Amino acid sequence: MPSASRLDFWIFDAYRAEATGLGAFRIGYALFVLLLIAPGHSVYGRFTWIAAYPDVFFQPPPGPMQLVPGVPPALFFEGLHVGLVLGLAALLFGYRTRVASVLVGVLLLIGAGFSYSFGKVNHDVLFALLPLVMAGSGWGGAPSLDARFGRERDASSPAWPLALLALLVGFAMFTAGFTKLIGGWLDPSTHAVQGHLVKQFFTRGRQDLLAGFFLGIENPWFWEAVDYLTVGFELGFLAAIWRAAWMRRFAAAAVVFHTGTLLMLNIAFTFNLIVYAAFMDWRSVTARVRSTGVPGWVQRLGPQAWAGVVLATAAYFFWIGSPLLYASDVVRFTSDLTLVDLLAHGLALAVVAGVVLGRMRKASLNAPGSASVAPPPRRGRPARG
């Protein structure tokens, strides 16, 4: 296949997905943000703290944020929270999905831009870009209110948005790995991961979970292997984007990788987990939903009633927030980890394990000589008819 044809195939066909599967991911993304990130309430999703800082601390990085003259008042950030929960509630039900996707993405980028302007850049830019990229994917096709009332069609969706998202993820991981490569992570006389562990443990107070256990490991071969594995994995992500199957495997491995980082260094990459989930095969989820069916009273609701449901959902999450946050207040850690971080990583790890076990079971059933044998008839009363 010529190189131009390969590129065309990668952009327009390699990541093709069904609208129903994309719709299931849209619902998962909206629930993830509303329940785990909790705009306006959690430490990750609240931006009103920015208004408390004087303008002298406002030092935006190169980019459009430098056009902002200073720190806006708290009312501005409360309006940002309102817009976020409205957009997320609309995404949850698939109401005006494209507009809601752009709204959520733009507001997340604005919030991130302000939070980055005080000296610390987090790892959540992919999380903010995701709804903007997926706005053109057709993830509002089904199941959604747009499909129900004729604004979207349940049809095959374009593949280029997922290909673009894969490129963004691959490039982000590659730049992280390349920085480590030129920074001496592979120098056999030093152990970079072990050094980070010591620093995080003693200077940042990250002493939860398995940090103490790993601190006691002094085998140089182990730490050098971890350094090589980290750099190789992050560099390999960019090559994995050329095939959707490779990308799914790397995304699953990234969940395991970040869970290991959480256990060892007490650093959570909660935002990235939902980005990796975009490359899952969501068709099995939608198949179960279709087999369950939809209650009749839900099907009888009209457009105005559904608009009220969207507004009520947004009002709930704006005023009350996620119920998971109350559980986080009960369990405290010495580091800045929260119970929500553990829940998110545990859930993502369980999904990966379920997919792997499901594929292993399917492979065993399809293996030669594994044809299913009908069970012997049960003794007792003969069957009727």
Q: What is the helix content?
A: 55-70%
Query: What is the CA-atom radius of gyration, in angstroms?
Result: 24 Å
Main β-sheet: number of strands, strand sense, barrel status?
A: none
What is the SS-derived class? mainly alpha
The number of helical elements comes to 17
- H/E element order: HHHHHHHHHHHHHHHHH
Q: What's the pLDDT, averaged over the residues? A: 86
Shape: globular
N- and C-termini, Cα separation: 59 Å
- Proportion of β residues? under 5%
Identify low-pLDDT runs.
Answer: 291-295, 378-385
Q: Would you report the number of β strands? A: 0
Task: Kindly describe this structure.
By secondary structure, this protein is mainly α. It contains 17 helices and no strands. It has helices spanning about 5-10, 20-35, 75-95, 95-115, 125-135, 145-150, 160-180, 190-205, 210-215, 220-240, 245-265, 270-275, 285-290, 295-300, 305-320, 325-330, 340-365. The longest helix is centred in the C-terminal third of the chain and has 28 residues, at about 340-365. The model is unreliable at about 290-295 and about 380-385 (pLDDT under 50).
